[in-house]
């Protein structure tokens, strides 16, 4: 079995990553795995007008009647909060729900496009098509079925609501005070039509910028049945290219979104 397992690893590795300068392919066992997920806890950030955030209740903790230790808990969480997935049905009636997304849509080659120098200077920055074209000139053309991760730099503020959202207010009155970067709608069209990407992720609370009231970027991307990953963590730990993403949400039947565990494999 060992030769077969080695052959499978070599085949998968050659698919995921290009050959090294010495003409050798990186093996799966040689990958470094980076967790891009914030833990879910009482610190988890949710959209400010959510009436209830994460709760954790102890069902049992301690020694049982028979003398062995046992613990069990229950939790509550809105679909959209913390590191999570937006399913297409979130903004596109009749499109895929969480449980209808295929594993192929949630895994694959990825790139990180760093716009932090612009985004950190402007809380309302909209990432543009020119940002992506400039990135391609400096790196590689984006291939079809690539997962795009946008690094704005705002991940360093999580979970401080005031610096991450732009406000620590709660309720409907907080919504006009939201200020954080997002993806412009022109770029969303470009990515779906001209680059035919697989999915999009970002290190902010929303793929639309904080001041959006119409959520055009969500509507454009999700209409194409593309999953969106929000509140993605630790993008500063990733290179620009040669990344493999595994993004598996809680499998909520008919869900418009779900808590997400997302990890990245990179060459050591």
Helices and strands in order:
Elements: H1 2-16, E1 31-35, E2 55-63, E3 69-76, E4 84-86, E5 107-114, H2 116-119, E6 126-127, H3 129-138, E7 147-151, H4 161-165, E8 182-183, H5 185-193, E9 199-202, H6 216-223, E10 228-230, E11 243-249, E12 257-267
Parallel strand pairs: 5-7, 6-8, 7-9, 9-10
Antiparallel strand pairs: 1-12, 2-3, 4-10, 4-12, 5-11, 11-12
Helix pairs in contact: 5-6
In short:
By secondary structure, this protein is of the alpha/beta class. 19% of the residues lie in helices and 25% in strands. The strands form 3 sheets. It has a 7-stranded mixed beta barrel with strand order 4-10-9-7-5-11-12. It has a two-stranded antiparallel ribbon with strand order 2-3. The protein has a two-stranded parallel ribbon with strand order 6-8.
Structure characteristics:
two-stranded antiparallel ribbon; 268 residues; alpha/beta; Glucose Oxidase, domain 1; 7-stranded mixed beta barrel; globular
Describe, in plain words, how this protein is organized in 3D.
With 268 residues, the protein is α/β, with parallel strands linked by helices. It has a single domain, classed as Putative cyclase (Glucose Oxidase, domain 1). 19% of the residues lie in helices and 25% in strands. The chain contains six helices and twelve strands. Strands 4-10-9-7-5-11-12 form a seven-stranded mixed beta barrel. It is globular, with a radius of gyration of 20 Å. It starts with a helix and ends with a strand. Residues 1-11 have low confidence and may be disordered.
